Amino acid sequence: MTALYRAAITGLGAYVPEKVLTNADLEKIVETTGEWIRTRTGILERRIAAEGQSTSDLALPAAQEALAGAGLTAQDLDLIIVATASPDMLFPSAACYLQAKLGASCGAFDMAAACSGFTYALSVAEGFVKSGIYKNVLVVGAETISRFIDWKDRGTCILFGDGAGAVIVSRFKDGHGILASYLGADGTQSSILQIPAGGSMIPPSAESVAGGLHSIKMQGPELFKIAVKTMEQAVRKVLEHEKLQVKDIDCLIPHQANSRILQAVADRLAIAPEKVFTNLERYGNMSSASVPVALYEAVKTGTIQKGDLVVLVAFGGGLTWAANLLKW
Ligand code: COA
48-80 in b/e burial notation, b at 16+ Cβ within 10 A? Predict the structure, then answer.
């Protein structure tokens, strides 16, 4: 089907909570060392939401900044999509809470694709705008993932942090915008990364709480290998769609999970390391917020310039993986 319109990112916003948790702080909580965390993950510190601060609270300033950047008000929005693995509640969605806080009156829903959530949501927004159904869609990746961490599990608690990134996706006339998106998933690998309890399979109970089943369970080394393979594949898929090659990429914005994963992806793609944007040393893995916050920083620091070819790529629980190819 020939698209009626081009969809483009016309505004960007980001917000991270004030509280910083350093590797030295983690040394006091679990048996680890700052040196182990730094060399095995590249992470130096991460942000933690304040007590009472929910996912939609983090999303709000990011969304407001993105709206201002696009020159829009909340009333101009046709749809709000919040990608999150740590919503305010099971329902209503974080998107509905955000809609109320923004003073918007459009449709709103959450997207569940864990750490790939933002890249998934961006492709959904692209579809709505390209087809002519909507003009302006707010896409947010926001997480208070620290609430779902087992702070006794040194294999996971060192990795994650809280934050939010937002973009406005609007109709655009010239040649810039989202050129292609690719979504992948493998539900047979669901046990590799999950929060087992709290849903219909294992409803909340005294046993589920005592068993620590409401926090992230992860098979780190297995996930590492799959992440490298699927992110490489997703990047190649979006490039193939536009008959482009890796050498055409000006900036790769990968999900900020682990510096060794990013290094391995860069090696497999044979892309110059300076083209791979990283900020995980300051934030850790912010799940669905990682990609939009990294994109925000890459644009604000001038790393991404108008006309650049940008690829966003992520992987996460599901398992899921996805990529978006953008002409900035
Ligand atoms: N501090 C010190 N030692 C730790 C540690 C920590 N925080 N976490 C694990 N270890 C230990 C392990 O217990 C293990 O000890 P053993 O050899 O005595 O059993 C050793 O370090 C090596 O563990 P391993 O799990 O093999 O380490 P790794 O090199 O695979 O690194 C991860 C672990 C989690 C950093 C890595 O596997 C990873 O990043 N995986 C992907 C995770 C991810 O991206 N998740 C989010 C997806 S969206």
Answer: bbeeebbbbbbbbebbbbbbebbebebebbbbb
Active-site position among 23, 96, 157, 255: 255
DSSP label at residue 264: H
DSSP secondary structure string, 107-155?
EEEEE--GGGHHHHHHHHHHHHHHTTS-SEEEEEEEE-GGGG--TT-TT
Tell me how far the alpha carbon of residue 32 lies from the centroid of ligand 1, in angstroms: 11
Prediction pTM value? 0.97
pLDDT along the chain (328 residues), means of 10: 82 98 98 97 98 98 98 98 98 98 98 98 97 97 98 97 98 87 98 97 97 96 96 98 97 98 97 96 98 98 97 98 97
> Is 157 among the residues known to form the active site?
no
Q: How far is the CA of 156 from the centre of ligand 1 (A)?
A: 8
Cα(161) to centroid(ligand 1), Å: 17
Indicate if 255 belongs to the active site.
yes
pLDDT at 1: 55
Closest CA to 218 of 196, 198, 192: 192
